[in-house]
Amino acid sequence: MSVHLLSLLIWLPILGSLPVLAAGEQRPGIARILALLVTLAALACSVPLYTGFDGGTADMQFVERMPWIEAFSIFYHLGVDGFSMPLILLTNFFGVIVVIAGWRSITKRVHQYMASFLILQGLMVGVFAALDGMLFYIFFEAMLIPMFLVIGVWGGERRVYATIKFFLYTFLGSVFMLVGLIWLYLQSGSFAILDWHVLPLSLTAQTWLFLAFFTAFAVKVPMWPVHTWLPDAHVEAPTGGSVILAAIMLKIGGYGFLRFSLPITPDGSSHLDWLIIAFSLIAVVYIGFVALAQSDMKKLIAYSSIAHMGFATLGFFVIFAIMRAAGSDADQQIAQGAALGISGGMIQMISHGFISGALFLCVGVLYDRVHSREISAYGGVANKMPWFAAFVVLFFMANSGLPGTSGFVGEFMVILSAFHANFWYAALAGLTLILGAAYSLYLVKRVIFGDVANQEVAELQDINIREGMILSVLAIAVLLFGIWPAPLIELMQPTVEQLLNHVMQTKVP
Amino acid sequence: MDIKTILLLIPLLPLAGSIIAGLLRNQVGRAGAHWVTILGVAASCGLSFYVFKLIALDGMAAINTSIYTWALTDGIRFEIGFLIDSLTVVMMVVVTFVSLMVHIYTIGYMRDDPGYQRFFSYIALFTFSMLMLVMSNNFLQLFFGWEAVGLVSYLLIGFWFKKESAIFANLKAFLVNRVGDFGFLLGIAAIVATFGTLDYAETFARAPEAVGQTISIFPGTEWALLTFICICLFIGAMGKSAQAPLHVWLPDSMEGPTPISALIHAATMVTAGIFMVARMSPLFELSEVALSFVLVIGAITALFMGLIGLVQNDIKRVVAYSTLSQLGYMTVALGASAYSAAIFHLMTHAFFKALLFLGAGSVIIAMHHRQDMREMGGLRKYMPITFITAWLGSLALMGVPLFSGFYSKDLIIEAVHLAQRPGAGFAYWCVLIGVVVTALYSLRLLFLTFHGKERMEESVRSHLHESPLVVTVPLILLAVPSVLIGYFTVEPMLFGGFFQDAIQVNPNNDVLAEIGHHFHGPMAMALHAFVTPVFWLVVLGSAAAVLIWYWKPQLAVWFSQTLSPVQRVLDKKYWFDEAYQFLFARGSLGLGKSLWRFGDAGLIDGALVNGSAGIIGRLAGFFRHLQSGYLFHYAFVMIIGLIVIIAAFVIFHQGI
Description:
The complex is a heterodimer of chains A (509) and B (656).
Chain A: H1 5-23, H2 28-51, E1 61-69, E2 74-80, H3 84-105, H4 110-129, H5 133-142, H6 144-154, H7 159-188, H8 193-197, H9 203-220, H10 229-236, H11 239-264, H12 266-292, H13 297-317, H14 319-326, H15 331-370, H16 381-384, H17 386-399, H18 406-421, H19 423-430, H20 432-447, H21 455-458, H22 465-483, H23 486-504
Antiparallel strand pairs in A: 1-2
Helix pairs in contact in A: 1-2, 1-4, 2-3, 2-4, 3-4, 3-11, 3-15, 4-5, 4-6, 4-11, 5-7, 6-7, 7-9, 7-10, 9-11, 9-12, 10-13, 11-13, 11-15, 12-13, 12-20, 13-15, 13-18, 13-20, 14-15, 14-18, 15-17, 15-18, 15-22, 15-23, 17-20, 17-22, 18-19, 18-22
Chain B: H1 3-23, H2 25-57, E1 63-73, E2 76-84, H3 86-109, H4 116-135, H5 139-157, H6 164-195, H7 200-206, E3 214-215, E4 223-224, H8 225-240, H9 249-252, H10 258-267, H11 272-279, H12 281-284, H13 288-309, H14 315-335, H15 339-366, H16 384-398, H17 404-418, H18 424-450, H19 458-461, H20 469-495, H21 511-517, H22 522-528, H23 533-551, H24 554-562, H25 564-571, H26 576-626, H27 631-652
């Protein structure tokens, strides 16, 4: 079984959606239970992925490879390394969370809702596990469809605008990537991503390829200035959709940079890294201010997501600036700074998955009760929901990077790394310490604290056991990775080092 | 038990208490919550004294031990661990002792509060965080503790979260602290980039290598790297220890319950910055510029914040501004390279300021949570224990000979006097005038509160009585060290090489050693005081205070009328709050709104996204006309197309 573990993780949820669909509209209870069982099974199957993973090597593990479309040498080729394995675990973890989160709040077409998420989960695992460029592209595109449906069918009032914007934005980006993938195939005669990692390419070719990948992944992350689909999508999406979008789908953009841009086009990346660094820092500062001005809770968290993902992209691409700053004789200094940046960016992505997922769930808890996302509709929630308030304060503190929570680890490492390159990178990124706290705690002040603001707040009931369990699990994760991130960092260390080797050597023939 | 277990238990026992009181608040109930936290902190305090004995009295070598590896990346090991030396043990004893007193006191002060368990959970959590901060052997854990105490401070200032002023104050406190932490983090980043480690011992050992290295912040300017690092770290200290211009959060923090003001915002947390700089003495000693900066900031805070204390009417705010001013004194000592004196003042101040705050709290309980001194007066006959202990604390604060504050403050002033670096002259005058100011506001508080006419409403007056034992016992227990600790510890701590292992001073800067040559015991020092200007300044201030607020209260009115412009400046606290509110709070909100409207909604979405969608829509609208379905339309287009192709062929292939 272990040989086909990745296939199992991809196809179990996708095929598991069939019985859920078969439960039909008339039996939502059965659909819920079946969906929960499928996601739990997927989570259980992820355990051997973790325990069987060898943290001492950068080689691909759990590899599966068989011919698929031989005419174009496209293979059904799967495998994981230190970057993709944690992200697959995160995906399967959140698979369970969204099913439970939608347990009561979704009442319309429950079976289709649950089935969409199951299919989505399988496809996202596929994106992370794919080692064949075409396979990756297919999962990458297919993933849009269930998400499109989730927002379009179960979304809010402006869901049509949001879905079309979401779809066009991401589709436009990935078209360029498709061209890039085909070009790479024509150059190398292979669709294997790992072959591309060692393919010599001229600087011009690398620059064009870099831009093609950049378009696809920058939209996905999303990076400023192609981020405006995200707040709309989040606002209109149902809670579960927002959670998956923030916790997993955004990570695919960051993962793409690590899997494609950096190793395939190191010289192109080095050439255009200023673009990514500038966009990342703009995301941290500009978006931080924009988040401060939001009056809709979901929009605020969406903007906060963009700012936080800016740390991931900054961490990934700051290496070239470090190399330039350190000079050629300071290998130790470069390795130290660059490793901090890439590990920090990865940690930031995983941590942001937990925190943003938790924050959207918290908004969902309020929305289920009051049916408003407006900050001004609340005030003094802590009076009526003390346990809920404790969770919200914890998660927003984590969002503002409080040490001891996972939110600190990635930001801290990336800021340390950025300082190796340039004081100003670190200083601008460090502004998040102030801005992140400002928009997070300003929201907490207005929603959670204060006297009971209105009749609806006065009638609020504290979280029930189901909600409490989900939030507790997330709280434990956030604290655990904050207090002891070492296991996670060690897991990806060989992969980070291998990536550094790729990146620090020119591929121009 | 081996020493490592003991060291682990010291912070973990309060943490356990906090978790039990917080998460199981309904199960353990009110009494359970205070018992579990008090036992935890008491045990922690006892163990701290034991460790103090080992290190300070038995002469055990400093302990530097690692607990676990937090993270490990290429070349850098992030550890969680303890460094226990003379400096740490002093802090541990002060923190756990004051915390224990405050825990006991809270039983009385918060008796009727519905958030009783939550409060105990928070203060125990604070004790844990503060201990982690002072016991750390590396910058990472220091930053952990640093932010964690900030978190608890945030939670406690906003403890009464229904009060709009409280939740404004806690947000402000957190954000202002974050401004400091921003600098602090950059300092830490510079240390990692320079030394490749976060371990204190390694950093300090390698610090001399960095002398002469520079960093370029603005193109064309080169700063000494160590100066940059030290100033960044000190910016962190300015936030936490409320030094001007990052002091604005501390007076507002008085919105929190009084035990917190005593524990966090007077005795312990706000002194974290002082402790940190003392801990970093091997770095600061390498940068004259940074020390001058520290000196000047401290001097400004010491004098100008004290002055504001003169016009406050809220009893807690007077003590708060006094705290700011005293923190300034400590900072001045740091800037004069008299680190031991700063820690010494930190310790004495912790006792007498906690005492004053708890005394003020006792008054506030008696006054049914009224805090305005204009409605008090004559309380001495109703609450004799509070009255006497408040006097003792104030005499210590004023620096009356033989009291603890006398030794610590006199030595700071003497040290600044001897210091040679730029700014020392200015600082000397500031701290001297500060002595008069201290006497004035301290006695004003005592006279307005405990003496003179009883100005409160009858309904309040008829219920006045001394506070219960859980309140007065901590007052008495704090009064003892407030009076005595200076006399008994000044010689061993400052002139006995006590901090030798922890604090490094460049021999050229060592002003305390110079003072040590003329030191002949605490009694001699007290007697010698009568011929120093400092003592006569205390006398001058006291005499003026007695005249203005005791004998001739109409003088106070006369002063405030004739000096009304000055009064206004002080009342407005130099307009710091207004300026910050306008520049930063409103400014950033406005900036955010305009970036959003013009950048996101206007430019990106309006012009680019929806704009391009619009263009495509119009293009589609145009091309739609081409697909009309009429055969003659298609035929027409075909003919036109054919003509165009032929024409193009003719034009471009003429040469064939």
